[in-house]
Structure formats: structure tokens, C-alpha cells
Amino acid sequence: MKKDCSDIGCHNCAMKSVPFSKLTDEQLEYADKNKTVVTYNIGETICKKGAPLTHVLFLWDGIAKVYTDLPNQKHVIMKLLKKCDMYAGPGIFADEKYHYSVTALTPVKLCMIKIEAFYEIARQNSLFTYELLSLSNHAHIRYMFHLTSLTQKNMQGRFSDMLLYLRHHIYDENPFTANTSRQDMADMTAMSKESLIRIMKEFKEEGLIEVNGDTITLLQEEKIKFISEHS
Amino acid sequence: MKKDCSDIGCHNCAMKSVPFSKLTDEQLEYADKNKTVVTYNIGETICKKGAPLTHVLFLWDGIAKVYTDLPNQKHVIMKLLKKCDMYAGPGIFADEKYHYSVTALTPVKLCMIKIEAFYEIARQNSLFTYELLSLSNHAHIRYMFHLTSLTQKNMQGRFSDMLLYLRHHIYDENPFTANTSRQDMADMTAMSKESLIRIMKEFKEEGLIEVNGDTITLLQEEKIKFISEHS
DNA sequence: ATCTTTCGTTAATATATATCAATGAATTAT
DNA sequence: ATAATTCATTGATATATATTAACGAAAGAT
Q: Which nucleotide is nearest to A192 (CA to C1')?
């Protein structure tokens, strides 16, 4: 069965995240009463860093970027969100602010659940909270990998990590068509746009990848993995 | 009352972390039965990255470093642990491995609670899990700050961030005596040891700090904050 | 359809930071 | 006490990466 979600209530939503699969019927009902469905266009801001955290997001469709919206315009993209992803910023259970901005890279359809409802369910159901903690820690492990990539690897290594991330975690297919601009890719790898393009060219010339506009083919994935691990 | 902890059981432990303050007497009793007290010497490894995660740590005394133990010897120190800190690596509730190594920078006394006991309590008590999630997310917010510091700021900015971290989060006093070597400081700021020393000298010559061996005085904290924010 | 703006690309140059090498001071081992 | 390591420091040099500038192509606006 293809995972999809029409607006027929949390009960029947086939996209339920692991924490939500632990809820009782009553709790799902409650979540359902506190949800809203919204559609965003490309480039629209879904969450703004610093604003009060009011909702948890569940992507039904589309790709969005989660990034540190820094005053000096130098963003770091922490991750991309895709279909079926749940997104609760780190401010939840903490200071109740958004610490990242989220912007749509394609048209994005999502449902939002009020944070109060979220808290209420967490208070009632320790299995739910347990799974949230699990998700949170898995995310943490990924961020640590990201941090060591960005601080310890050279540009070739960081670029390789980005390619593998897009191929395996976001698009899950080999020739993939990225929804990220070159600037976005630069923000994912903590380099300047010009450097990113130069490294991309280098990879093309060495036959590691093929690039057609936004469509990228990994021609020698093993070598790319090697570069990721040895830079 | 000075926060301290003698081995009189979790019940009477004055250092109880917020999550543990939410436990019932019975649950505290249970934790107590599953704890061990250990002392480590300087330089000893408390946890090794990659090893199975078996315990959660509670520091009674001393300073330890939490770092990504990378194959190529290029470590990143994520944070320091001090008295009263609880430390459960991100592998808890996830893949049950240590993702960071932890090493004692001073003699360290700590108690360890078995992870199974931890899970059992989490299953029973949603308030406990709730507080764990809160801690986890607060930690995440700090890591994000760290990541943007390391990837977006120049060396002066990163060094300033480290000084402010040591002064406010670790030692909480102004002339402080660091337990970190120059190499450790370099690993905290993602630069080479030589660069760290050069920046340190620069700060001394500009009258921002005074350095006597490992004792550092922030002479112009406002300017250091300014550098942190504008680099 | 034309103008304007943004985006992708390239090359030349500047700069921040790492690496290398050398030395003295401080620890640790013998 | 002496030798042997390790650690802190400095200067000279190399290198990775950013910045600047320029231009064509694509996309949006009038």
C-alpha cells in the first residue's frame, strides 16, 4: 500500500509516525480535533526562527528546508523534510520557540497539531513520550554526524555527504532531481556557492557524477562514499 | 545548602536532576538498587564511542569532556560535564551505543544507573520521560548554537564563545582555572592547537583577557561578547 | 515583448587557517 | 638526578576556501 493521507482523521491516517501509532483511539480523536491542514507555495515560510512554537508539523507532501536563519544571511541547512516526516522543533518541551526556520522548496501540504494537545497526550501516555525521545535522539545522532562533517571534512567530503544524504535520505533513488538551489546546497555544506559549484564541476570532470540542471546521477557511489570517509 | 552527594541513596541525594525529582519513592528506591559509584583518574576513559551504552552517568564531582572520538585523531569536544550533570548519550532510547567518548579532565566521581532501570522507570512515569525530553531538547538547542559557532564564525568568534562557555556554563566565576589543555581548547573550537594559541595571544595583547598558565581572566567581557556576536 | 532581477557559472585574487619546523618548559619515567 | 616524553609557544610557509567581478541564462515583472 502506498503511504498517503487524505483528510479522513488521524485515526485512518496511513502516515502515522511511530509515536502516534502508540496512541489510544481516544487520544487520536483528541489529536484530530486539534489539527489543521495547510498548503504552502514554493519559497513560503512555514515556521520562522524566534517565533513562538505553536504547532507540530506532519508533512503530507513536498520538500522543505530546516535552517538556522542567521542575521548575517549565512544560513546552515540542518536537514530537509519530506513526505511523512514529523517535525517538532527543539523548542518543544523546552523554551517553546522555533529555533530553526522552515521554508517550502516545493509546494508543501501538511497538517499541524496544536502544541497544547501534544503536551496533553505526552502527559497521559508514557509510551508516546518514550517514542518522541527515541526520535529526538536519533535526530541528535544525525546532527552529530553533520557537525563532524561540517567541521572536520574538506569541501569534497562535505559535498559527498550531501550527495549521499539526498540520494538515500531524501529522494531514495539514484538519478534524483534536487529541489535545492545551488545556494541551498552551499548552505547544506557550509561553503560558498561558488566553491560548491567548483567542487561539483570537479566531481563531474572526474566522472563521479553527472549533472543536468537539477538532476544529479551518482555514477560512482562507492568512490563518493570513500571520499566521504577519508577526507 | 551546598549541593553535594554522599552515598546515602537516591532518596536523599541532594543532586537529583529534574527528571529524578519527579520519581516516586518506590522508583527512587529502584534506581538506587541499580546504581554503582565509581572514581576515575585524570585521562581515564569513562565511556568509549561505539561501545554498548549500558549506564547513565551522574557526576558527583570533577570535570569531564564529551567528544567525538574520530579515527583520524581530530576530535570535536561537544561539551564538558561538571558536578551535578546527568549524562545520557544520544544512543539512549535509540541504538544503545555511545556516540561520544567521555574522558576525565580532573579526578571524577560519579554514579552510574543501569540503562534497563532507566527504561523501566521511563515506561512507568511519563512525567519523568517528559523531563528527559525537555533536557534533551535544551541540549539540542545548545548544540545548534555550537554548530553555527563552529561553522559560521571566524577563529576569534569561536574562541570568544569558548571563553564565555567556560566562564558561565562550567566554572561560573571570572578568573577561572581551566582543566582543558590547549589541545582540548582547540578541539572545542575546531581549530588547530597552534591557531588557538595565536588567537589567545592576540586576545592577551589587546587586553581582552589575562592568562597565567591555565588561569584565565576575562578583562573585557562585553567586548568578548561583541566579538562572539559580530564575527 | 522587453526590462529587471535572480540564478548558475567561471576565473582571478585575497585571506583565513592549517601545517611544518624548531625550541624551551614542564612532566613523567628510568 | 638524568633522560625521555609531552605540552606550550613562535615564526615561516603552504593551502584550502572565500571574495570579488564578470557574464550568460533563466525566470518574473511591467
A: D18
Identify the three-state secondary structure at position B6: coil
Residues 6+ apart with CB under 8 A from A12: none
Task: State whether A147 and B143 contact (CB < 8 Å).
Answer: yes
User: Please, which pLDDT band fits residue A14 given cuts at 50, 70 and 90?
Assistant: confident
Residue B16: φ, ψ to 5°:
-45, 130
**Which chain B residue has the Cα nearest residue A135?**
B94
- pLDDT over 80 at B173, yes or no: yes
Q: Looking at the predicted structure, is the pLDDT value of residue A44 above 50?
A: yes
The DSSP secondary structure of B97-114, one letter per residue, reads B-SSEEEESS-EEEEEEE
Which residues on adjacent β-strands are paired with residue A108? A40
pLDDT of residue B70: 86
The span from the CA of B27 to the CA of B34, in Å, is 11
What digits encode the pLDDT tens for the residues A117-176? 999 999 888 889 989 999 999 999 999 999 999 999 999 999 999 999 999 999 999 999
Q: How high is the pLDDT of residue B2?
A: 46
Domain residue extents for chain A? 10-146, 153-229
- CA neighbours closer than 13 Å in the CB half-sphere of residue B177: 4
* pLDDT for A1: 45
Which residues fall inside 7 Å of strand C, measured at CB?
Answer: A 181-183, 193-194, 197-198, 200-201, 211; B 154-156, 190-192, 194-195
Indicate the fold that domain B10-127 takes in CATH: Jelly Rolls (2.60.120)
Please determine, for residue B166, whether its predicted confidence score (pLDDT) is greater than 80.
Answer: yes
Q: Where are the strands (E) in A180-219, listed by range?
A: 209-212, 215-218
The amino acid that residue A52 corresponds to is P
Q: Is the Cβ pair B147, A147 closer than 8 Å?
A: yes
pTM: 0.93
Distance (Å, whole) CA B47 – CA B38: 13
Q: Which architecture does CATH list for B149-229? A: Orthogonal Bundle (1.10)
| Domain A10-146, architecture per CATH | Sandwich (2.60)
**pLDDT above 70 covers what percent of chain A?**
97
The neighbour count for residue A180, using CB atoms within 10 Å, is 19
Residues A90 and B8: their CA atoms lie apart, in Å, by: 36
CB A90 within 8 A of CB B140: yes
Per-residue cell: A221: 557511489
pLDDT exceeds 90 at position B72 = no
| A153-229: CATH topology | Arc Repressor Mutant, subunit A (1.10.10)
